[in-house]
Inverse folding.
């Protein structure tokens, strides 16, 4: 894996900044109001629809049973007024249904943010951002090349349409990681770069916005 600087004149937000913004959003989700979260998720979904990105809907399809399970577990495990009075104690509660729906909304918003990140940033740029964020760990003898290679291979195989059975693609994954796949060690060239003015501005503005939303949710 080769890491270098971007060519002169390259512009835009550094992928490391985008990853940090998504992580900040993920950490703040539990404290956001459901109404604010719904607005954010709706804006992200509209952006993904306009960009004709299928990632979000793929993620939703893969997690549909988890979302349904969240709603059902909360609906039946949370005490409250029965949704179907005739069933009495065997009925899901209104409070549980609302709580389960809120949890499902939080997960959907998180997936929408992840889909927006993946659709707007190429695999190599995401890897460059992760590499940039992990570089301070190098003095601690953390093998950031191996971590980055694992992430790159995970994203690569996640994009493949035909992965085969879980055991097969896991074996292929480890073979590619340890031996370079078909006997060839792939070389990935990364343009690491550095944070610039727009990055600091984006990080500050997103921090302020998330801080205001968290304070609003706690009020």
């Amino acid at each position: 894996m080769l890491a270098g600087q971007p060519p002169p004149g390259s512009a835009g937000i550094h992928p490391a900044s985008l990853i940090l913004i998504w992580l900040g959003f993920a950490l703040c989700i539990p404290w956001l109001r459901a109404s604010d979260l719904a607005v954010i998720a709706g804006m992200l979904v509209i952006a993904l629809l306009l960009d004709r990105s299928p990632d979000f809907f793929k993620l939703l399809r893969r997690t549909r049973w988890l979302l349904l399970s969240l709603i059902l577990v909360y609906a039946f495990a949370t005490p409250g007024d029965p949704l179907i009075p005739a069933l009495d104690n065997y009925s899901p509660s209104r409070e549980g249904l609302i709580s389960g729906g809120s949890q499902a909304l939080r997960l959907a918003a998180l997936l929408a943010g992840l889909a927006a990140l993946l659709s707007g940033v190429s695999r190599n740029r995401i890897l460059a951002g992760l590499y940039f964020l992990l570089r301070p760990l190098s003095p601690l003898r953390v093998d950031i090349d191996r971590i980055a290679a694992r992430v790159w291979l995970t994203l690569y195989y996640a994009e493949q349409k035909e992965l085969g059975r879980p055991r097969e693609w896991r074996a292929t994954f480890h073979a590619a990681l340890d031996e370079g796949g078909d006997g060839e060690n792939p070389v990935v060239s990364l343009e690491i770069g550095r944070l610039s003015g727009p990055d600091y501005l984006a990080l500050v503005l997103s921090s302020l916005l998330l801080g205001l939303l968290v304070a609003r949710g706690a009020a």
About this structure: Strands lie at 2-4, 189-191. The radius of gyration is 21 Å.
